[in-house]
Amino acid sequence: MLDRTEVFLEKYRTPLPTYLSEMSKHAQDHNIPIITRGTGDVLRYILRTVVPDEILEIGTAIGFSALFMKECLPDEDVHITTIEKIEARYAQAEVNFSKYDKDNRITLIKEDAGYAINRLRDEGKRYKVVFLDAAKGQYIYFLPVLIDLMDVGGVLVTDNIFHNGVVMNSKYAVNQRDRTIHERLREFLAAVTGNERLESLIFPVDDGIVVSKKIKQ
Prior knowledge:
The protein is α/β, with parallel strands linked by helices. 42% of the residues lie in helices and 19% in strands. The protein has helices at residues 4-10, 18-29, 37-50, 64-72, 87-100, 113-122, 139-148, 179-194, and strands at 54-58, 79-83, 106-109, 127-132, 150-159, 198-203, 209-214.
């Protein structure tokens, strides 16, 4: 159920295309993680401000966010590369892309993100926008490579950095099973906000978003 703020904001949002609304409901009914409307608001603003020709997404899930980003720039010649290693998810994404990406502007890489992003860097790929929404405990390890994958002026958007509020708690109040991810997300936040190559801002939107612009090569 939407809280009061979300109910209010919904009046001012661009409605989702029917197929994305149906995908969102399917994800909600089956407990599949996709971006929230608040994250979508931030992504739409950044995409329409930066107007990238190449986007990299880490964490495809069922393909909702890749298709959403494509819809944000319907008249632009934008290409999206998205990475997912979980077969049950990328299989659904392939079906959705075959239905809704008729002009083949989305490329799905079915591989572990750590290997994939290092290979893309070695191939000399560059992206104006990178959207990071994968395994939270891996964010700290992905960060240096993702910075290298952006030219100066590129923007990294990192989702779910509060991890359902866990990261804001004292480590002594965190369950043993969550302590590693608690530590790694805090390490990531320190690294992304303290990196001299980036200018970063943490947005307390939904489960937390960091927007980082690359300011130095």
